[in-house]
Amino acid sequence: MRLQGKKVISLVHHEFEDLELWYPILRLREEGAVVHLAGEKANEKYIGKYGVPAESDFAYGDVKAADYDAILVPGGWAPDKIRRFPEVLTLIQEMNESEKAIGQICHAGWVLISAKILNGKKVTSTPGIRDDMENAGAIWYDEPVVTDGHLVSSRRPPDLPDYLREFIHVIERN
Question: Which of 13, 14, 36, 107 is labelled catalytic?
């Protein structure tokens, strides 16, 4: 169990991409990490795009970057909602400043754009937000996974195995 003793926070909101939320959570737990979910409200049930539920452990404002080794932002339509919360943007910025692992897949790049942490960073995402990523100053690649220091990005569900192998490696390294 390579991530024993590590703690990861995953953000959630309605219409998350089901696989992009649950696959990373399950893989990280398999490696021994403790993974919590944070949503707009604590103990709230959120429904994914395909109907899979997820219940938050904490509200966004209750989460402190100092308590976690890494953060995950799922894709789907949830990132457009998640990025509207100032406490989420602050959390992402604090994780970035501490160089803790930040994972983002598909449309999750929107959250990092709103947190203003992508200028000069190498990333990937769903091609649908490529312009958004580049307009935020990122250097965009059409690859299954791109790592720039502590930032790990991926495109879509078929890339999940590559994404999690790299994300786990970055958490181990930090």
Answer: 107
